[in-house]
Specification:
Blueprint lengths: L2 H4 L6 E6 L2 H9 L5 E3 L1 H9 L9 H14 L4 E4 L7 H14 L3 E5 L18 H14 L5 E6 L1 H5 L1 H14 L3 E4 L5 H11 L6 E3 L11 H7 L3 E4 L2 H20 L12 H8 L1 H12 L3
Parallel strand pairs: 1-2, 1-8, 2-3, 3-4, 4-5, 5-6, 7-8
Helix pairs in contact: 2-4, 4-5, 5-6, 6-8
């Protein structure tokens, strides 16, 4: 089933954030139907830096290719601002399609961008953003969806965000993403305004501007997709801090062993027995 076909279902699509082959494989094994390759999560993990536009298009494409090697699930891929003007956005579509993305999310911030839940953002003009969306639509060779995101709520207010979002649909966006509604009222007004026109995406960021809601709550409001882009990094970062502190204090991992896989447990999780069996089949010993 393609991502477009899945979005015709009445059930909301939950897409957890991933940032590499390991998290993609684990999320797939957990039973999700789609994944979200987060630019923020890649910046956090590959660079150890904040989500302020430091990740490059090539770094993201390389990561997407590795994710595609580990899962057959459709991946919604963060394309930031398209990494430049409309021609750059067009090339980003071509590059990310080749890497295996099922959908590209592009936003209307100036470049370099900031995380949608940071302050002091700025926007490009409406015409520039609609031009990027049109260029991406013209460039795609497959049924790759365009997720148009506006960050206008924090910059120009909710009404301006609605105006921009409507224009992005007219320009060819397949999915609409109005970033960082500030309360439950603004969150619910999005499907009240756009429900039935295109699928709608909600973004859940722990500690961000938008109140955290469950998938079923968002489904009842009228959203079609919910992403949890950076949750896995926040969970792993806290665990890693506690792990390193424990190792430094105690000089071994014994005190932490009940919170980690052992050697065999990790190998089971990443499919080592299956890979070894496959190798035997190919070398004639299996």
């Amino acid at each position: 089933m393609t991502l477009r076909e899945r979005l015709t279902s009445a059930d909301i699509l939950v897409a957890p954030g991933v940032y590499d082959g390991l998290t993609a494989a684990l999320a797939t094994d957990a039973g999700f139907e789609a994944l979200y390759l987060s630019g923020a999560a890649v910046a956090y993990t590959r660079l150890g830096r904040p989500d302020i536009g430091l990740s490059t298009a090539s770094e993201m494409a390389d990561t997407m290719a590795l994710v595609a090697d580990r899962t057959d699930l459709p991946v919604i891929m963060d394309a930031d601002t398209g990494f430049g003007n409309a021609l750059n956005a067009r090339r980003t579509m071509q590059t990310y399609e080749r890497a295996g993305a099922a959908a590209l999310q592009i936003e209307d911030q100036t470049y370099p961008k900031k995380c949608g839940h940071l302050s002091d953002k700025s926007l490009i003009t409406l015409n520039e953003m609609t031009g990027k969306i049109s260029a991406m639509a013209d460039a795609r060779r497959h049924d790759t969806l365009i997720v148009a995101r506006t960050d206008a709520i924090a910059v120009e207010g909710f009404s301006a965000a609605v105006d921009r979002a409507g224009a992005y649909i007219e320009a060819g966006a397949d999915v609409l993403f109005i970033e960082a509604p500030r309360d439950r009222d603004e969150l619910s007004r999005i499907p009240q305004t756009f429900g039935g026109r295109v699928p709608l995406l909600a973004n859940m960021v722990e500690g961000g501007a938008t109140p955290i809601s469950s998938d079923k709550d968002l489904e009842a409001m009228g959203f079609d997709i919910v992403i949890f882009p950076g949750g896995i990094v926040r969970a792993l970062a806290r665990t890693a801090q506690e792990y390193y502190a424990s190792l430094r204090e105690h000089g071994s991992n014994k005190r932490f062993s009940d919170r980690m896989h052992d050697f065999d447990g990790l190998n089971a999780a990443i499919g080592t027995p299956d890979m070894l069996a496959l190798g035997k089949r190919y070398d004639g010993t299996g």
